[in-house]
């Protein structure tokens, strides 16, 4: 791999300034699990990296039911998996984080890195979509908020500008009441990327589905909300037929690539089955 | 004699403390003063004529000490038997990743940078990727110069077609075979395919080579130091007694470490620069350019009488040999195990034709029971398919046909009784006839694995009556060779094991050894140790013995030695009828593996073998598209992880004793053999889906379930 | 190539170290080549196999994909730093010996470091937890049975470490 210089800003402002100054030659380094892998394979060749590990404002996770949950960009996936506020208030997110690769990767990979890397098969993004999460970005001239559902553009591409830093991700309090879960379909090994995975969240009132969120990873060039399937659920009951009918709408929304983890057709079909199974699980959890 | 042996006590690995503390030094852990780092340019095309190589820019990179191409070293060819593989491609490249140029530099970064700057102009040639087309009239000929190729030990028998690497035909003549098939009431024919697979050792290939005057020193990951020495001498012309190989710790082998690549490149770079040169492959290079298991197509035919007796069997086995035959260790240049399609059965007339052909892919090599894995997957699936067609229980059909079981007018032999026990214990262990819920089913596979053959020796030295040394040239790739030797020596001499020290010596000082492969170590080195220890005991007991007392002992296990171990693997699987996913619920491995010398290592080989087979059965595949491998890292070429592994029970069956010391048998290439067919058979019985191709992926099961239609539940094979 | 070298200080197995190197090099390469600590191995080189496992500030990581620039000022523990100075093995190391938790041994330093990290976080894990935690440490030799047994035995024997 090509060598690079390492910069260690102490604040977001410093980091933003560095990124602006370095321009195309610079890259942000969070946990490094993606960037280092790409660099080692010769697929990324930054001349400068701006390491965010020493920026305290980006670390940590805070949350309560009144304010929602804020995940610092440098919070590790292992923290998301294990920290009590997430486990208690957004258990679906902890579940999805737990499914990422291996404990070693989760110790190193960060919330910001996982979003900006934008591999469409990653586990956290669909779950964050289910929780209506919003990413906060800081650029040289402005800060802005972008819903995670609108963050992704294409394979490994987001709306985050090269000179912007993702500082945190916020799960609004209203989203925390849902019963959410994650189903990662892993036909080969436990440490693999998903062939397809589904995140879903429901609220059920008096046996009737009041709100629904479904998002799929591995189904195309970006993780995707499946709004038609969601609409089909809302207002309906929790009977298997209704859930299955909604799940049947999922494949149409997808355009997965064929690869070692399965053909496009197979992934579509597995998305349908996984969605139905997950919805059934959530409905039964809602009943207890 | 075997009653009072101390082998039941679990062994303590002699090298254990080094391994658990990180102090065991593997090849890549060595750093020599002044050493340079090697990097190689691999071909970016599958088949091409090399028009021009420009190394000017590479030579300018600061820190670069040498840049070599075939123009510098000549057309040097090497191989384990057939010397067809160029150290650096001269006029042509024949697979993607083949070494075209090599750089030695002060740092790895500089070497890699220089490699990036080498410019090669190729004129692409038509590729041959499908082995079935290798001998068709339009097939491009990969090695027009094949006739000139030589074996390490002499001239080569020219094949019928230049694209044929090797061939082996064994068994009954055409007439006899036809007559035998004529006696059958039914003839069944099925075709099976198995993919290219990588050995998946965790340590990629590495080598360090340096010269001391005219002596060439080598530390490398090659598990057969004496073989490497001989192959290097044959290729480079350097005298064999001026090459010293020190290989000690090998970080996993599974057949792949018998073949060396970068030792040769390092030889020339070291000679050119006068400095030690070290090469460490990245895993990408290892996946794309070392010698994977041959992809194979097998067509099996079996003639059976109405009552299920096998009367004739033939197999056509076609191996995708890749671009070079260099990685195969036998003079037939085919994976020999391909003949074992029906080795656990008595069939009056059999015929096997094994053919390996050239294609534009990485050279096919050896991987844990080469050929056997493919043959047993095909054979044991075939037997179940026959059982299904005849409506006979698969266990019963096997019992009817056991090897040594039914010579007319005679009682079944002892062998047949042992195999029968092996089979029944596995079947009982999995509760063969039990009632199962929908989606579940059991399957079994029965097999014989031949014992190891080859040559090896030890030198034993008594420094005093209670200080014994055993000197061996064997490298340890994990099987526990050193500890096994010590235990055999101690047991034979009746002394505590701590009085025995095993010393691994370089090729210059130790007795010849065929290398840790082909299941030979315990058979050959263990037996040499036993014989040497017996003699040493006698000598030191003599009045007036003068210390040190030394004994050298060599042992040869002939290639036709009739010693095998029988195994039966039974599994229960659950098939998810919506996703096709196969879950192995439980497995039972029954085996007559003879006297156990090191219980932990023995169990470890069987357990590790089983999981190795599990990966091969369910997920491992190294696909090549247009000559390019489609799995560049271990992130794509998935190996089983700890939660992927089902419970495994191992059942020992007392059988005939082995030819190793105290009746020991080989188990290194044993535990993996039955896994794929047992699972395939269980899946067929659980879901009605019969897969004749590996890996048994969820998607493949799903596709077949869909073909038969979700509503019309597929017919299950009987007994599921 | 411009010179990107800088001076990086870090603590390795409790000893403060200073290396002058390109910060882009992997922590693994620096440990192995510059500090002669070859216990951690390079297998896959891309974070999958766990042969390069080390602890960074107590957290289990893949040193092959940690740029050394990232560990400036941090504490790294490698397999060499586990056993006592007099060579006494830790309960984890002893258990790997007694249970046959290795064969070729190339994965073993990583397994031992990973198991040690587990037992520090969770001194009495269930077999299921052990299997899951160890997911990221591939072993091609043992089939994992003996590794899981070793970790459970080490847990029984007390803490993962003799400190
Ligand atoms: C072996 C392996 C297995 C994996 N398996 C899985 C899996 O099963 N499921 C899964 O979901 N993922 C998996 N991943 C991917 C993993 O989740 C990502 O690599 C990781 O989340 C990236 O986070 P990081 O902090 O390491 O990012 P880095 O590698 O540091 O950065 C990734 C990208 O994001 C940019 N970036 C990082 N932080 C910011 C920020 N705050 N603002 C702006 N840009 C930023 C970087 O410039 C870079 O382009 C796997 C990765 C590996 C190496
Ligand atoms: S070498 Fe680092 S995880 Fe494999
Ligand atoms: S002991 Fe060889 S890979 Fe684990």
Automatic annotation (TrEMBL), chain A:
Name of the protein this chain belongs to: Carbon-monoxide dehydrogenase medium subunit
Naturally occurring in which organism (per UniProt): Blastococcus saxobsidens
Sequence ranges assigned to domain FAD-binding PCMH-type in this UniProt record: 1-176
GO molecular function, one term: FAD binding
Superkingdom, natural source: Bacteria
Keywords (A to Z) from UniProt: FAD, Flavoprotein, Oxidoreductase
SMART domains: CO_deh_flav_C
PROSITE patterns for the chain: FAD_PCMH
Presence of keyword Flavoprotein: yes
Cross-referenced SUPFAM superfamilies: CO dehydrogenase flavoprotein C-terminal domain-like (SSF55447), FAD-binding/transporter-associated domain-like (SSF56176)
Pfam short name (any one): FAD_binding_5
Oxidoreductase in keyword set: yes
UniProtKB/TrEMBL annotation, chain B:
A molecular function GO annotation: iron ion binding
Superkingdom of the source species: Bacteria
InterPro entries listed in its UniProt record: Ald_Oxase/Xan_DH_a/b, Ald_Oxase/Xan_DH_a/b_sf, Ald_Oxase/xanthine_DH-like, AldOxase/xan_DH_MoCoBD1, AldOxase/xan_DH_MoCoBD2, AldOxase/xan_DH_Mopterin-bd_sf
A Pfam short name: MoCoBD_1
Boundaries of every Aldehyde oxidase/xanthine dehydrogenase a/b hammerhead domain copy: 21-126
Protein name: CO/xanthine dehydrogenase Mo-binding subunit
Organism: Blastococcus saxobsidens
From TrEMBL, chain C:
Keyword tags: 2Fe-2S, Iron, Iron-sulfur, Metal-binding, Oxidoreductase
Keyword hit for Repeat: no
Source organism, top-level taxon: Bacteria
Chloroplast recorded as keyword: no
Sequence intervals crossing the membrane: none
InterPro entries reported for this sequence: 2Fe-2S-bd (IPR002888), 2Fe-2S-bd_dom_sf (IPR036884), 2Fe-2S_ferredoxin-like_sf (IPR036010), 2Fe-2S_ferredoxin-type (IPR001041), 2Fe2S_fd_BS (IPR006058), Beta-grasp_dom_sf (IPR012675), Diverse_Oxidoreductases (IPR051452)
GO molecular function: 2 iron, 2 sulfur cluster binding; metal ion binding; oxidoreductase activity
Residue ranges of every copy of the 2Fe-2S ferredoxin-type domain listed in the record: 6-82
Entry protein name: Carbon-monoxide dehydrogenase small subunit
């Amino acid at each position: 791999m090509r060598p690079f210089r390492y910069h260690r800003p102490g604040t977001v402002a410093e980091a933003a300034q560095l990124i602006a100054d370095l321009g195309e030659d610079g890259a942000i380094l969070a946990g490094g699990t993606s960037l280092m892998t790409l660099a080692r394979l010769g697929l990324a060749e930054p001349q400068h990296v701006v390491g965010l590990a020493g920026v305290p404002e980006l670390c940590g996770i805070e949350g309560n039911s009144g304010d929602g949950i804020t995940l610092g960009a440098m919070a590790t996936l292992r923290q998301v998996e294990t920290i009590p506020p997430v486990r208690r208030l957004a258990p679906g997110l902890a579940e999805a984080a737990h499914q990422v690769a291996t404990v070693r990767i989760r110790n190193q990979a960060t919330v910001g890195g996982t979003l900006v890397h934008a591999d469409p098969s990653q586990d956290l993004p669909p779950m964050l979509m289910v929780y209506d999460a919003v990413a906060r970005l800081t650029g040289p001239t402005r800060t802005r908020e972008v819903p995670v559902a609108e963050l992704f553009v294409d394979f490994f591409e987001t709306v985050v500008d090269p000179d912007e830093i993702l500082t945190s991700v916020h799960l609004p309090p209203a989203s925390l009441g849902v019963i959410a879960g994650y189903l990662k379909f892993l036909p080969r090994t436990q440490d693999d990327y998903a062939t397809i995975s589904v995140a879903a969240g429901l609220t059920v009132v008096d046996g009737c589905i009041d709100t629904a969120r479904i998002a799929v990873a591995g189904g195309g060039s970006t993780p995707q909300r499946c709004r038609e399937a969601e609409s089909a659920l809302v207002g309906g009951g929790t009977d298997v037929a209704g859930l299955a009918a909604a799940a049947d709408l999922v494949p149409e929304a997808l355009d997965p690539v064929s690869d070692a983890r399965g053909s496009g057709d197979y992934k579509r079909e597995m998305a349908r089955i996984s969605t139905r199974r997950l919805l059934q699980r959530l409905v039964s959890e809602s009943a207890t | 004699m075997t009653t009072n042996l101390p082998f039941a006590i679990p062994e303590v690995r002699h090298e254990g403390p080094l391994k658990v503390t990180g102090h065991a030094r593997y090849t890549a852990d060595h750093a020599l003063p002044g050493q340079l780092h090697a990097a190689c340019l691999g071909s970016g095309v599958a088949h091409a004529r090399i028009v021009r190589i420009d190394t000017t820019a590479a030579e300018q990179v600061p820190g670069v000490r040498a840049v070599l191409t075939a123009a510098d070293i000549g057309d040097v060819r090497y191989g384990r038997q057939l010397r067809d593989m160029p150290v650096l491609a001269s006029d042509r490249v024949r697979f993607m990743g083949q070494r075209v140029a090599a750089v030695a530099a002060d740092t790895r970064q500089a070497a890699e940078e220089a490699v990036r700057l080498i410019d090669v102009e190729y004129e692409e040639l038509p590729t041959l990727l499908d082995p079935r087309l290798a001998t068709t009239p339009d097939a491009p000929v990969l090695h027009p110069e094949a006739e000139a190729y030589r074996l390490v030990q002499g001239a080569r028998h020219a094949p019928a077609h230049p694209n044929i690497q090797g061939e082996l035909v064994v068994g009954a003549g055409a007439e006899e075979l036809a007559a035998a098939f004529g006696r059958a009431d039914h003839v069944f024919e099925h075709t099976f395919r198995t993919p290219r697979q990588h050995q998946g050792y965790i340590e990629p290939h590495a080598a360090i080579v340096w010269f001391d005057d005219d002596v060439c020193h080598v530390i490398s990951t090659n598990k057969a130091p004496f073989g490497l020495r001989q192959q290097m001498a044959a290729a480079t012309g350097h005298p064999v007694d001026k090459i010293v190989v020190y290989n000690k710790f090998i970080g996993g082998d599974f057949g792949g470490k018998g073949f060396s690549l970068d030792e040769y490149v390092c030889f020339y770079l070291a000679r050119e620069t006068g400095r030690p040169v070290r090469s460490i492959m990245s895993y990408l290079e290892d996946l794309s350019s070392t010698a994977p298991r041959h992809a194979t197509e097998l067509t099996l035919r079996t003639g059976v009488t109405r009552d299920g007796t096998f009367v004739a069997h033939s197999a056509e086995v076609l191996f995708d040999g890749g671009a070079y035959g260099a990685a195969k260790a036998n003079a037939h240049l085919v994976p020999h195990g391909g003949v074992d399609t029906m080795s656990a059965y008595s069939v009056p007339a059999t015929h096997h034709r094994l053919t390996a052909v050239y294609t534009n892919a990485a050279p096919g090599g050896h991987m844990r029971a080469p050929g056997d894995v493919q043959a047993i997957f095909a054979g044991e699936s075939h037997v179940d398919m026959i059982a299904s067609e005849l409506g006979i229980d698969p266990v019963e059909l096997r019992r009817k046909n056991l090897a040594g079981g039914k010579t007319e007018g005679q009682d079944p032999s002892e062998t047949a009784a042992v195999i029968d026990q092996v089979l029944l214990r596995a079947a009982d262990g999995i509760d063969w006839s039990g009632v199962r819920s929908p989606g579940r089913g059991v399957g079994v596979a029965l097999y014989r694995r031949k014992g190891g053959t080859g040559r090896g020796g030890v030198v034993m030295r008594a420094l005093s009556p209670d200080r014994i040394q055993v000197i061996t040239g064997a490298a340890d790739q994990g099987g526990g060779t050193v500890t096994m030797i010590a235990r055999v020596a101690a047991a034979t001499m009746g002394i505590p094991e701590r009085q025995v020290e095993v010393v691994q010596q370089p090729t210059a000082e130790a007795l010849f050894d065929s290398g840790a492969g082909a299941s030979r170590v315990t058979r050959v080195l263990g037996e040499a140790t036993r014989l040497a220890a017996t003699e040493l005991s006698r000598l030191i007991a003599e009045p007036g013995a003068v210390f040190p007392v030394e004994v050298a002992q060599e042992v040869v296990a002939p290639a036709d030695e009739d010693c095998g171990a029988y195994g039966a693997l039974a599994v229960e699987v659950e098939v998810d009828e919506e996703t096709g996913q196969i879950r192995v619920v439980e497995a039972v491995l029954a085996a007559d593996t003879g006297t156990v010398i090191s219980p932990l290592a023995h169990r470890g080989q069987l357990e590790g073998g089983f999981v190795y087979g599990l990966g091969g059965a369910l997920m491992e595949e190294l696909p090549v598209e247009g000559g390019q491998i489609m799995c560049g890292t271990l992130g794509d070429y998935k190996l089983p992880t700890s939660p992927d592994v089902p419970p495994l029970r191992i059942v020992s069956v007392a059988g005939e004793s082995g030819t190793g010391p105290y009746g020991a048998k080989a188990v290194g290439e044993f535990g993996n053999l039955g896994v794929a067919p047992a699972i395939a058979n269980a899946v067929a019985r659980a879901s009605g889906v019969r897969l004749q191709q590996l890996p048994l992926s969820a998607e493949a099961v799903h596709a077949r379930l869909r073909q038969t239609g979700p509503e019309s539940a597929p017919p299950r094979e009987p007994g599921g | 190539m411009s010179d990107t070298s800088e001076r990086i200080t870090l603590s390795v197995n409790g000893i403060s170290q200073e290396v002058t190197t390109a910060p882009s090099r992997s922590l693994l390469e620096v440990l192995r080549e510059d500090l002669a600590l070859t216990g951690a191995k390079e297998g896959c080189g891309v974070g999958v196999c766990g042969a390069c496992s080390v602890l960074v500030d107590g957290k289990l990581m893949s040193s092959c994909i940690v740029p050394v620039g990232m560990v400036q000022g941090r504490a790294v523990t490698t397999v060499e730093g586990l056993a006592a100075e007099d060579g006494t093995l830790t309960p984890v190391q002893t258990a790997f010996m007694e249970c046959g938790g290795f064969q070729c041994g190339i994965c073993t330093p990583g397994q031992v470091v990973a198991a040690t990290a587990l037992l520090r976080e969770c001194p009495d894990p269930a077999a299921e937890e052990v299997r899951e935690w160890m997911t990221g440490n591939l072993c091609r030799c043992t089939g994992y049975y003996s590794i899981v047994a070793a970790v459970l035995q080490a847990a029984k024997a007390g803490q993962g470490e003799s400190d």
